[in-house]
Every structure is written in C-alpha cells, then in structure tokens.
Design goal:
Blueprint lengths: L7 H10 L2 H6 L5 E3 L2 E4 L11 E4 L4 E4 L5 E2 L1 H9 L3 H11 L12 H29 L5 H10 L4 H6 L3 E3 L5 H9 L4 H6 L3 E3 L6 E3 L4 E7 L5 E8 L7 E3 L15 H11 L2 E4 L2 H9 L5 E3 L7 H8 L6 E5 L4 H20 L3 E4 L8 H5 L4 H9 L4 H10 L7 H15 L5 H16 L3 H19 L10 H20 L4 H11 L6 H17 L31 H9 L5 H8 L3 H5 L4 H38 L4 H12 L13 H28 L3 H6 L2
Parallel strand pairs: 12-13, 12-14, 14-15
Antiparallel strand pairs: 1-2, 2-3, 3-4, 4-5, 6-9, 7-8, 9-10, 10-11
Length: about 700
C-alpha cells in the first residue's frame, strides 16, 4: 500500500519523540565520548571511527564521508526507504498518533497501524490464558515439572509469566475465536493456530506444552516458546515469524536484563530459556538467550546498546550442538571483536553443564566468579583446539600445529597474529625455551603460507616492485646506520609479519644476522632473529650489545666479491639525501613497515576479488539467474553483512564459499585504511616523533 501524505504535525511530533541514539545504535556500534557517541560509519568502509551522533542536537555526522542528518534521514539513506515509510514506522515505534492529509487513505492506514496493536493485545490475552491453565488440574504436571525438575520458585514462574497449553486440538482456538470473538485469521497471524490441510478449519499450534512468553525490549509479548512435556518432537517449538515476531531481532529475557546489563556493564548470552530463568533467579539478571537460532550480528548489536565496555560473554552448552552454536556466534562477532567494538569472552562450565544444571548445585556467586575469569574468545579457541590432541604423540602434535595454523591465519591484524603465534608456541613447547623459539618461527612460516595464497607474480602490480624496493632499502639503511633503533625494527618486522622479499635484500639480512650472532655470543638463539631480548644483553668480554655492532665495517669484508655487491654497496654509504631520510627513524619505521604490509594485503585483495568473481560465474553457470539469486548477489555488494539464504537450485556450499570470500575481501579493505593512516600520519604525529 502506498503511504498517504502525512500531516506536518505528525512529522514534527515524530522528530521530537524519536531518540536518535536508539535509532542509530540499532545499526552501528556506538561508544559514548563525552556528550556524544562515536562509531564506524555505516555509509562507507572505515577502520577508525569518524561517525558522531549528538543526542542533544538529534543529529549525526560523519567526518569521513560527510553524511549527516536526523534519525529519519539516517534510516532513509541506510535502508533505501521512502520518507513516509520511515516516518510511519517511527510513529508506530514511539506511539505517535498519525494524521494524514488524504482522507481516502485514512481507513486503510489505520488498519495497517492497528494490526500490530491487535496482535499485541491478542498475545497478552493468550498469555493470561496459559498462565491460568498452569494452575488448574490440567496443568499440574507442567507446574510440577517447573518446581521439582527445574527448581523454579513461584516468584520466578510469575516473573516470566510461564503457562501451559492444554492438550486439546482446539483449546486456544475455542477460547479466542468462539468465546472472545477474535477473527480466526488474526489468531492465525499471531501464530497461535494453524489451518488444516483440508482447509476446513484450524487446530492449535501449541498442545500439551509448557508455554514460555517471548517479549520485546518493551516487555510486550510477541511470541511463545513451547516445551513438550512428552516425547513429542520438536522438544521446543517457537512461534512462526509474524508482523511483530522476528527471531533474529529478539533476545529472550532482554526486557528484564537490560537495566542490569547497563549497571554491570556486561551481558551474558546462554543457550536456553531455562538457563536464563535459573540465572535471573540466582540474581544474575544480565543473562539473555537467542531463540533457538545462531546468535546473529543484529542480536549482538542489540546487546551492545546497553554495555559501555561492549563486553559479551557466551555461555553455551558444552555438547556438540553447543560447540557449533559457539563457533557460529564467534563467526558473527569476529569482525566487531577485531575492530575493538566488542569484547567477547567464552565461559565453559565445569563437567559440561549448562547454566541451569550448574546453578542447581552451585551458587550465583560461584557462577559470577567464573564469569569474571572467562577467557577471551581467541584464547578459548586455542585451548579448545589443543585439548583435542595428545601432544606426546608425534602425529597428533603435527595435527595440533596445523589446526593452530589454520586458526591463526584467519587473524587480520599482524600484531595480533604475532602475539598469538608466540602464545601457541608456548602452549606447544610446554616450558622448553629452546623448543618454543623454534616453534614460534615455524608457526610464523606456516601462517604466512596458509594466509597469503596467490603469492605468485600473478597478483603483483608493476608499481609494487618499486614501492617494495624503496621501503626495504629504507629499513635496511636505518638498521645499518642507526643501531639504537635495531630492536624496534626487529619488533616491527615480527609484529607486522614482514620479511625482506627482494633477493639482494634477503641476502644482506642473512649476512647481518650472521654477524650479529657471532659478535653477540649467540644470544639469543640463532633461530629467533626478531627478538628484542638482545637489547637486554649486557656488554661483556665475549658479547657486544646489538645496538653497538658496527655492521657497516663487517659487511665491507663479506660483500667485496659477492654478486650482490653492486646492489648492496649504496646502502652502506650515506650521502646528504640519504642522511636526511634517517632523521625521523620512528616515523620512517612505521611508514615503511605499513607500505610493505600494504603491498601484501593489496595482493591478497586482488586474489580474493578474482576468486569472488570466479565463484559468482561458477554459480551462474550451474543454475539459472533467478530473481532471488540476483537480489542476493546484489545485497552482497551493497550491504555490510549478508545472511546466507537458501536459494532453490543453488548449492549451499557455493553460497557459503561466496560469503566467506566477500567477508575476507571487505575485512582486508578495512585494514588497508588503517595502513594508509600509518603510511601518512597526521601532522601532530609527525611533530611528536620529531
């Protein structure tokens, strides 16, 4: 239906009623900064937040792309919707009375607006009916189950408005349609009844089930979760999607948890309804649950509105299904965690218990202690991976190393990779310092090989050679002539996962390492060329500090007859121009390292983009280009994230591979922006390093 012309008073009332922070926070992870909020702009890719929301002015503005406006414009631009459609939705959300200028459309408009209100009313009545039935003789078994097997108090049962759906085929139908007079079509739209296949009537969707009302953030019942009290499958049956019930946009218990999440600055996501109820009963009222589906980014962003530190703890079951749920949730949250928009932790309870089972034998304080010590998601993944192998068996040791390499290769940030490569080496080395050093270098080489596919010249641009040559020369020149910065260069090479690529530069670096190993008495181990511990080695009769080695003099002795001599010799001499280039060493190290890493990341982007195009071509060659497929492929390009859909005639594995390529490509594009900032730092950063 076309949106009629809205009265100016309605538009103005919506502008005054809307909370721009709530509107934007539904789509952007915001952090409070003074009186304003900041986040990454949804209208262009960026790594550093430049998007600002001012609640006092009711205005947003991006200093990166110039996008700005009020809440109405934000939704229009982000969702590509009309002005009237957005205003109408906000009017419903903020309960603003709607007036129109076109009387002919008024009745249809009121019908559209009233449908949701009718559904809210209908579900509230159904909730009361189920609550009443729970306390009747027909609900005795359900009530006994809650009290004796789930250990819920009467207060908790009332707080969550639990009920019982009787076993008859038309109990709720008779009550709502025949007694209350609601249209059967409306009750069907609420998800409470289902048409018979013979099209001659309806039957109740929920029969002989414990009824758990699902509420939106405002506390309105929007659907139900029904648990069987017999052996009927499925064990849990949720309401279908309705005009007011969308499983991917809701979290069970959020209406009761949001204030505690704000107060404790922490949200806990568990797997089941009864886990939430047990935690709330124990005083841990920051707990919520997804609705039988994988935790989505929309649900994660919904939670992030309420926690300043952006801390979410996942506590899913320890069984296979729970492990898969955790892995899927980590996949959804990883991008936010990498950007620092989310602090994600994983809690695994002792003996593989879920939260409800654990609290049946322990106190809420014990659970809170475990929450406080829950590991970061990446540490949890490393520990979980290693627990699958016996490191005393050589074949399993190798398998564990390969599994860790696969995990580390997914990390987009070089510094983060370096930190976890070192940690993995420690876990595998089990206290053997010499072995740890060798494992660290081995892991680093494996991660490079696993991470940077398509390293051949096929992905190289002509300009890359000149950029790489200049950057590598500058780093080597600094290393040779500014000994006090050698530890910093080593640390940077390690953190950035950089190695010299040009053959004559690799040869020179090997000569440098050999000289330093000889003069520094072999400390540290020769297979750990990047460590900064050399800086801590004292000057003794047998060892020289790394920073004091006269590399230039020693190199003259080894290059005189080598084929690389002509290419290396200019680095050993300083003229007026090259001497000036060494005046800001910290800035030079940062910029040249960013250039080298950027070349590698750009190559990876070109590889991913071509793979993306080839996968699309393969999909189109295997199936006709339907409208559903066309829209899906278009959304993959225009939307920051896309849920994988089931499209008839299309192999699901193909779509999964395509989504992974899209995800990796845009992740690397965002990292390129960060590298550009490091290559070209702002003036104040240059002055600070002068």
């Amino acid at each position: 239906m076309d949106i009629p012309r809205l009265h100016p008073d309605t538009i103005e009332a919506v502008r005054e009623a809307v909370n721009i922070v709530d509107v934007v926070a539904a789509h952007v992870v915001l952090r409070k900064r003074g009186r304003e909020y900041v986040g990454c702009c949804p209208f262009h890719d960026e790594k550093t937040p430049s998007f600002t929301v001012s609640p006092s002015k009711g205005f947003y503005y991006c200093f990166g792309c110039g996008a700005g406006g009020n809440a109405i414009k934000f939704l229009m631009e982000l969702q590509k919707r009309s002005f009237g459609d957005v205003v109408l939705e906000l009017a419903q959300q903020y309960q603003v009375p709607v007036r129109t200028l076109d009387a002919a459309h008024k009745q249809a408009l009121q019908a559209r607006l009233s449908l949701q209100e009718q559904l809210y009313e209908l579900l509230a009545i159904a909730t009361s009916f189920y609550q009443h039935a729970l306390r009747q003789p027909i609900g005795e078994a359900a009530y006994t189950y809650l009290r004796q097997q789930r250990h819920l108090t009467e207060a908790t049962i009332q707080h969550f408005r639990l009920g019982y759906a009787p076993a008859g085929w038309q109990v709720i139908y008779s009550y709502l349609v025949e007694q209350k007079g609601y249209p059967a079509s409306l009750v069907e739209q609420a998800g409470l009844i289902v048409p018979r296949r013979t099209a001659d009537g309806y039957y109740d969707r929920f029969r002989d089930r414990l009824m758990i009302p699902i509420m939106d953030s405002q506390g309105r019942v929007v659907g139900f979760g029904g648990r069987t009290l017999s052996n009927e499958e499925p064990k849990y049956l949720n309401s279908p999607e309705t005009p007011i019930f969308n499983k991917g946009q809701l979290l069970f218990g959020l209406d009761k948890a949001r204030q505690t999440i704000v107060h404790k600055d922490q949200a806990v996501v568990v797997e089941g309804y009864f886990d939430v109820m047990a935690l709330h009963q124990a005083g841990l009222t920051q707990a919520v649950a997804s609705l039988g589906t994988a935790l989505s980014q929309a649900q994660i962003k919904l939670l992030l509105r309420y926690t300043e530190s952006k801390q979410i703890i996942l506590n899913f079951d320890a069984d296979t299904a729970g492990q898969r749920a955790t892995d899927r949730a980590i996949g959804e949250a990883a991008d936010l965690a990498y950007r620092g928009d989310l602090t994600l932790r994983i809690l695994t309870l002792p003996a593989g218990k879920d939260a409800a089972e654990f609290l049946a034998q322990a106190t809420g304080d014990r659970y809170q202690t475990l929450l406080d010590t829950a590991p970061l998601w990446l540490d949890w993944q490393l520990d979980t991976t290693l627990a699958q192998y016996d490191l005393n068996q050589s074949d399993q040791f190798h398998q564990a190393s390969q599994a860790l390499t696969q995990l580390l290769g997914k990390l987009p940030n070089a510094a983060l990779r370096s930190h976890y490569i070192h940690r993995c080496a420690e876990l595998l080395g089990r206290g053997d310092s010499r072995l740890i050093l060798r494992l660290e270098e081995s892991l680093r080489q494996q991660v490079r090989g696993q991470r940077w596919q398509g390293r051949s010249q096929k992905w190289q641009r002509p300009a890359d050679y000149n950029l790489r040559q200049a950057a590598e020369e500058q780093l080597l020149r600094l290393y040779l002539h500014r000994g006090d910065y050698r530890p910093l260069i080593r640390q940077t090479l390690q953190a950035r996962d950089i190695e010299f690529s040009l053959s004559h530069h690799r040869w020179l670096w090997r000569q440098i390492l050999a000289i330093e190993e000889d003069l520094c008495a072999g400390l540290p181990a020769p297979d750990d060329p990047y460590t900064a511990e050399w800086l801590l080695s004292p000057t003794t009769d047998t060892a020289t500090r790394l920073t004091e080695v006269d590399l230039v003099s020693h190199l003259f002795d080894v290059i005189s007859e080598d084929s690389h001599a002509n290419m290396i010799a200019p680095l050993l001499h300083l003229d007026e121009i090259t001497a000036v280039s060494l005046e800001r060493p910290e800035l030079t190290i940062q910029a040249t390292a960013a250039v080298l890493e950027r070349i590698a990341v750009e190559k990876r982007c070109r590889y991913l983009l071509q793979s993306w195009q080839e996968t699309v071509a393969l999909i189109l060659s295997e199936a006709p280009a339907s409208e559903a497929l066309r829209q899906y492929l278009e959304r993959m390009i225009t939307s920051p994230s896309t849920d994988i859909q089931s499209i008839p005639g299309i192999d699901g594995d193909r779509l999964q591979a395509l989504e992974q390529l899209r995800h990796d490509y845009y992740q690397h594009r965002q990292y390129l922006q960060q590298l550009d900032e490091e290559r070209c730092p702002p003036l104040n950063a240059i002055r600070s390093l002068s």
